[in-house]
Structure formats: C-alpha cells, structure tokens
Amino acid sequence: AVPVALVAGLSRAAQFGVLVKGARPLEAMAHIRTLILDKTGTLTDGRPQITSVLPHADLPEAEVLRLAAALDQGSKHPVAQALVAEAQARGLHLPVPAGLTEHAGEGVSGRVDDRQVLVGGADFVAARIGATVSETALPMAADLDAGAVLVAVAVDGRLAGHLVMADPLREGAAGLLQALRRQGIARLLLATGDRAEVARRVTAGLGLDGVRAGLSPDQKVLLVLSERKNGPVMMVGDGVNDAPALAAADVGVAMGARGAAASAEAADVVLLVDHLDRLRPGLEIARRARGIAI
Ligand code: ADP
Ligand code: MG
C-alpha cells in the first residue's frame, strides 16, 4: 500500500499543475542530485520569433519561407510552429507536403510542389546535402543576435536560405535555477540538439555546471546515464527528441502544456501548465511527503 502522506503529496502536486505518475517518482523527486534541462521549449520560451529570412539561391525570401513552412506544417517542434505562424501572418498559401520524414530534434524532409525540401539545423542540412557546415552557416557572424536559432532550408539538394529566430529564456529562469540549488540540486546541466554557440549565449550568466550541445536523442540518453553514476538524475524536456532521455532518467519531467505527446508519455512527471517554475513546488512537496512518510 502507498503511505497516506504520499497520496496526499500526489494530490497536492496536482493542485499546482504537477502531475506525478505515482508514489515511486514522487519519492525519487525528494533525492534528486542532478537536474538536466533541455533548451528549446524547456529553458527557453519555446515560441521563437522569426527575425530574418535570408535567401541564398535565386529564390525570393517569401518562397524560402513558404516551402519551409509547408514542409513543417505537420511538426510539433517549436521552430516548425514559428515557421507556419510567420507564413500565415504573411498571407502565404501552404500546400500539403508529400513523403514527409521527421528526424526528431534535427529537421524534416519531404516534397512540396514537386520540389525536394529539407528544413532543419545547419549541421543536419549540411550533412544531408553534402555541403560543409561553414557554407550553410555563412550568415551567422553577420546576422545572428545573441542566442538566435538558425534554421537552414535546402531545395532540390541545394542550400536555399536561412531563417534566423529569437527564442529567449523563460522569464525568471535565472532566479528559478538559484532557487532549485537552494532546494538541494547540486548539479545543473543543459542538454540541447541545437548548436553550441546558441546554447552558450542563451545560458550565459545562469551559472550552469555544464552545457552539452549538438546532442542527438541517443546522446541525451547517454548523458543521463553517465550522470546517474553520481546520483539520482531529473531530466526536463518538451520534445519528441527528449522522450528517450526522460525515460532513462530517475525522474523524467515533460513540459506538458505545449510539448510533444511522446515526451508526456515517456515522463514520470508532467507539468500541466507551461511554467518551468512548477519544478519548485514539485520538489518541495516531494520532500515534505517523504519527511512525513518516514
Ligand atoms: P532542444 O534539444 O534544445 O529542444 P531541438 O533538438 O529540438 O532543440 O532542436 C534543435 C534544432 O534543430 C532547432 O534549433 C532547429 O534548428 C532544428 N529543428 C529540429 N526540428 C525541426 C523542425 N521540425 N523544423 C525545423 N528545424 C528543426
Ligand atoms: Mg526542446
């Protein structure tokens, strides 16, 4: 039987919008040593705004955006949703894509208007079209603001353009991380599929113990497993690409309000409201429930 204090803890957590899937994760939450945070959609707001569209080939700006957004219509990734919103705001008609393949945490490929289109991170697109990263990352130095997210678009195997997006930290992120340390989290890490430059700029001044960038879903799992050697690990994420790492952690936490369904399924804890700061009452309630139960 589950001790009454744990049942009360589960119900109290739910009142804060923290869905804990049972007594085991609630108990495990009381002992977390290392917290690993995903970047896009978890530590950042996850509603990126497009700041510029940079065509490289002979295609006009609107055409680069239209092809990319059409392809990304079926994706739940925050970057994809930003593309579609911008295309709609510009009144662009988006045809239905064919032959879609989504590569979790990397990008999407498929056909739009009988053209082969590829949208995703600079490294991913470069690898797929056989270009070098420096070619696809050309506009970075000149056009990227601090922390800007860079998305590359290829059409029929050639680089067609870049989209630059701003994705700021969640409000109060710095204060939240300090508070979590006071609650006993000894080690704070960032794990992202995005580029190292973006990750470093976005997290500057947060006092993290480490930033791991360019990670595939499998590499996020390996990070969790290697950190578990030092004590219990909590991993927080929102994407399809985070799901395996959430499952590998002692406590996986999904950003449930706008995150991917796969991440909520893989997680032990789901934040039903879109506030990362719900981690605080979550940890507090877990510690108290344990104190009473013992
Ligand atoms: P994080 O791990 O920080 O949440 P992701 O791994 O989800 O970040 O995404 C990293 C990068 O991959 C994004 O910044 C974007 O460039 C690219 N990307 C991933 N999925 C898509 C998509 N559906 N459409 C366009 N770009 C994508
Ligand atoms: Mg994410």
TrEMBL record:
It comes from the Bacteria. This is P-type Zn(2+) transporter. Belongs to the cation transport ATPase (P-type) (TC 3.A.3) family. Type IB subfamily. It is found in: Cell membrane; Membrane. It comes from Pseudodonghicola flavimaris. Coiled coil: none annotated.
